[in-house]
Amino acid sequence: MQRALVAVVAVAAAALLGCNDLENCGSTPVDITRTDGGLYRCVTSEDCPRTSRVSVCVTDVSSERECVRCDETRCVRLIPESCQ
Predict the structure, then answer these.
(1) 17 or 51: whose pLDDT is higher?
(2) Which of 46, 43, 41 is nearest to 57 (CA)?
(3) Residue 5: inside a domain
(4) If you ran DSSP here, which 8-state letter would residue 64 be given?
């Protein structure tokens, strides 16, 4: 009986851990535009404008948080998509 209870608790815990809002399934790139509608141009990701809560993308792997990067001389904001 105790072994069955432990098994049920383990399955429930695994299910809950696998279902969270932090998991993402890729990201959506959005061009960063100036107030006149033109694109921000860049050489490196550090050239791109961002708020204090947005970081510079450090890898090509989808991040759990929004970040900015330089993509072919244009600044792009990457917005993570949650797995639904």
Answers:
(1) 51
(2) 46
(3) no
(4) S
Give backbone dihedrals phi and psi of 47, rounded to 5 degrees, phi first: -75, -20
- Does 5 score more than 80 pLDDT? no
Q: Which domain holds residue 69?
A: 22-82
Q: Which residue has the tokens 């100036």?
A: 34
- Residue 3 falls within a domain, yes or no? no
Q: Residue 33 pLDDT more than 70? A: yes
d(CA 46, CA 64) in angstroms, rounded, equals 19
The model scores a pTM over 0.85: no
16/61 Cα distance (integer angstroms):
24
Q: How confident is the model at residue 8 (pLDDT cuts 50, 70, 90)?
A: very low
Q: Residue 12 domain-assigned?
A: no
5 SS3 class: helix
Q: Does residue 31 lie within any of the structural domains?
A: yes
Nearest alpha-carbon partner for 54 in 21, 83, 79: 79
